[in-house]
Amino acid sequence: MSTASETLIPRRRWSRRALWIAAAAVLVLAAGFFAGYLPRRLARAKLAAATPTAPVAPRVSVVKALAVDAGRLLTLPAGLVANQQTLVYARASGYVSRWLVDIGDRVKKGQLLVQLDTPELDKQLAQARASLAQTIAALAQAEANRDLAKITARREAALFGRLLISAQENDQAQTQAAVWEATVKAAKANVAAQRANVGQLEQLVSFGKVYAPYDGTITRRLVDVGTLVNAGAGTSAAALFEIASTDPMEAFVDVPQVFAPSVRVGTEAKIAVRNFRGRVFIGRVTRTAGALDPASRTLRTEVDLPNPNGELLAGMYVDVSLDVTVSHQVVRVPSSAIIADSRGVHVAVVDGSGKVQLVAVTTGLDNGTTIDVVAGLSGGEKVMAAPPGGVTDGMQVQAVSAG
Fold first, then answer.
1. Does residue 225 lie within any of the structural domains?
2. Is the pTM value of this prediction over 0.70?
3. Residue 197 is part of a domain; what is its CATH number?
4. Of all residues in the chain, what percent carry a pLDDT higher than 90?
């Protein structure tokens, strides 16, 4: 027992010694940490307290507004349309007996397109011709009676002159001759009316054959054999064909106001078609609207483009280029620099001290990534490339050149 007690006592003393050593080490480390960290923290706090707080001006990217020559090649998008495009209707009612052309066929003016059966009109025409024959026979009878009445009137007049008959008998003969003369005139008028009716029906029957109104291409066929066709155009009548004249083709472009005065009838236009890369078609300005569209402030301009070989199709997308000028230089800035809101159209110009000035401008042609300013800037100004939403007049910024 004495031996076990003696062996436990040294272990307990060693454990207490180790604890004291560890505690002393922790205290030394803590003292070193606070001795090094606290002075620096206090120094920074004093420095921050001594330095006054001031707002930091935001950094913005600026570009230089570039003055460019007013003369330029203006390129505008357009779609090709046919010179003439017509829906062909029938002038007579009937059934389609045969059609002679189909889509894509080139036709000449006066070429037969479709033939109709018009049984009702045929019967009406036959009846009108019979009525005409009756009126012609009635006219012949009236003329014979008139001639007889005239002979009788001459004889009665001779007898009355020799006092062989009474005056009343002579008057009756003369009156009868006049009556038959009037009857003949009425019969002639009736014949003329019947002939006009026959002519009208013959014309309607001839409308059973539908002809091309001009040289062109059939773009749609809307009927087939046996289709019932109503005369005229409207809700109850259906078109037979659609025909288009594609030589020349037409393109309509909207020229911005700043370039409108330089557009002249007869000037050359270059047309680029994406289907024909590297090829340029030459057209001419044939007419302009003569007034600007009040909504878009653009001038509607028509360009005619020869198409003798039929290479160009209606509906193609093209780029029309015109040589245009303005009376003064324009200033080009990025499209993102334009501020358009309830205040108007402005750009944010930054002066040498970093102060912002909102300058009202008038924009011209939008080139996609850049836009031309025709009034408000003179060139050389430092303009915010992409103004933030809260930019205000007099705002202080740090200008960073975007190149």
1. no
2. no
3. 1.10.287
4. 30
